[in-house]
Fold this sequence. Notes:
By secondary structure, this protein is α+β, with helices and mostly antiparallel strands.
Amino acid sequence: MTREKLNREAITAALAELEGWSLAADGASIKRSFGFKNFSEAFPS
């Protein structure tokens, strides 16, 4: 069974429901970025 790729309109609509996610520059993947004050903050204890 093969899967069809979503068209740009479907991608935009789906991403609108996902907080913090956006279409990557390549247009073929999605991305989400996280920001931390320092390295230690990135790893909860």
